[in-house]
Please model this.
Amino acid sequence: MRVFTDDDLTRIDRTYLGPKGRKIPWTATYRQYGIGFATLALAFGAMVLFGVPINPYTLWAWFFGSIGLSLYIVRRLRADVSLWATFKAAWQEVAVPRDDPAKPTHYDMKICVPIYAAGTPPPETRRQRIAAASRRRKTANVKPKMQPLPEANQKEGAPL
Model:
């Protein structure tokens, strides 16, 4: 009998543990390595574009800054959602049309204020408030009684 484990996500998202016979002291997926190399390349391109001088201090700042950026990105990813879907959702969140903030927005609000009889103070305790609310409900749901027409107004043969 073969028992299947619940490691489907690990099988899909392969983990590189290091070269044969050796082990890297951390566990990272191929996707995390790809994001790390991409942030290294983009950060170096930004350094060259902005004319940052290349010296040991800026190289260390570039290296640790890009590692921090890649960790920031990787921690916000989920294992079951692809990187493309994440970028697409982020773009849709940024590019969605927004309402004009200068246009006033109107809200309708319903306020229920209990009305007490003249001269009676509002109820003090919870029990008194519940009793007052039930009295209001009883008086609000009273239907008027139907009164029959007087006999003198009824004509013979007329429909009732």
In short: Residues 8-85 form one domain. The CA atoms of residues 99 and 105 lie 10 Å apart.
